[in-house]
Amino acid sequence: MWALAGTGTYYLEINCAMPSVDENKQWWNDGYVWKQGGDEWSRAWGGVDMQWHAAVLPRIHSFVPAGRILEIAPGFGRWTQYLTGLCDHLIAVDLSENAIEHCRQRFAGDTNIDFFVNDGSSLEMVPDASIDFVFSFDSLVHASADVLRAYLLQIARKLTRDGVAFLHHSNLGEYTRYFSAVEKIPPRGQPLLKKVGLEYRTHWRDPGMTAGRLREFAQEAGLICISQELFGWGGSRRLIDAISMVTLPESKWTRPLRLLRNEDFVRDISVIARLAPLYSADSFPASAE
Ligand SMILES: C[S@@+](CC[C@H](N)C(=O)[O-])C[C@H]1O[C@@H](n2cnc3c(N)ncnc32)[C@H](O)[C@@H]1O
Predict the structure, then answer these.
(1) In the chain, which ranges are continuous DSSP H helix?
(2) Could you report the per-residue pLDDT of 234-280, keeping only the tens digit for each?
(3) Is the distance from the beta carbon of residue 244 to the nearest atom of ligand 1 less than 6 Å?
């Protein structure tokens, strides 16, 4: 079912089950070898430092520093290492016990973080009306629509009046017809698709999730969706991912939805990587000291 690519990146072949909470737990807790603690996924950007400063931070800079941040699904803490310095208090919640144990050790010196293992959808450990910024990046793309709905219903209660949530999730559902057609091709024929420039990997995105569904869930939760950026991932030309930002209706951030179909996201990754040898923090000898 699982396939590990030689570079240390992972992917799941398309003809496997859609990602459930149990499968996520099985994979991230017991299956995946966190050789570089997730830093391996930042290689295309020229490293974690470049991805954070040139791709993630520009998208969230209006909302940080913040008083209290909630990070959903931190993994081994690739983004936690930056978020901790951008708030008074950070709560980080992940369904993997191993990931949370690793974070507890890695951030033992950071007294402003509380880590929790959850069941893949509960935020019961977070006090109501206490969170100024919810952050989740490169995790909930593997979560089903049910999970996103459950998180949004709770986020509506956890946010402070001006709180905002920044959620990276799947938009694969927009391409269901394409990928179900591809799925009918036997596995050995699939590399041929690549040769002729057609994609055959879903990067384990959830096929039942779309940006449209996120808006429906936000509305059901009483939240306003203020932006959605749709983009490709892992070289995909199809916009299989989305980042949605939501806030409460009375929040100062409320505005009509701004939606961008960002066809340049994948190209921008290589632009950022090209700058890494000059500007990345770890490009300087001092970083090795
Ligand atoms: C690909 S890793 C990414 C981790 C981190 N966000 C990063 O970018 O390095 C996915 C993480 O999401 C967690 N995860 C997946 N589904 C989840 C869910 N429904 N609730 C909480 N954590 C989840 C996994 O346990 C894993 O730690």
Answers:
(1) 21-25, 48-50, 57-60, 80-83, 97-106, 145-158, 176-183, 190-195, 211-221, 265-279
(2) 878 899 999 999 999 999 999 999 999 999 999 999 999 999 999 99
(3) no
Domain with 212 in it: what CATH number? 3.40.50.150
The answer to whether residue 209 scores a pLDDT higher than 80 is yes
pLDDT digits (tens, 9 = 90+) for 50-88: 999 999 999 999 999 999 999 999 999 999 999 999 999
284 occurs within a structural domain: no
Q: Residue 62 has what pLDDT?
A: 98
Nearest CA to ligand 1 atom 18: 120
Q: Does 73 fall in a domain?
A: yes
Q: Give the per-residue pLDDT at 180.
A: 76
Domain of 196 in residue numbering reads as 2-279
237 C-alpha to center of ligand 1: Å?
24
Domain assignment present for 166: yes
- Ligand 1 pocket, 46 CB below 6 A? no
Torsion, CA 42, CA 66, CA 264, CA 279, rounded to 10: -50
Let me know the angle formed at the C-alpha of 52 by 268 and 284, rounded to the nearest 5 degrees. 95
Global pTM value = 0.92
Backbone angles phi and psi of 241, in degrees to 5: -120, 165
The answer to whether 112 and 89 have CB atoms below 8 angstroms apart is yes
Q: Is the peptide bond before 65 cis (omega within 30 degrees of 0)?
A: yes
CA-CA distances (angstroms) from residue 130 to 69, 82, 97, 156, 158?
9, 20, 24, 11, 6
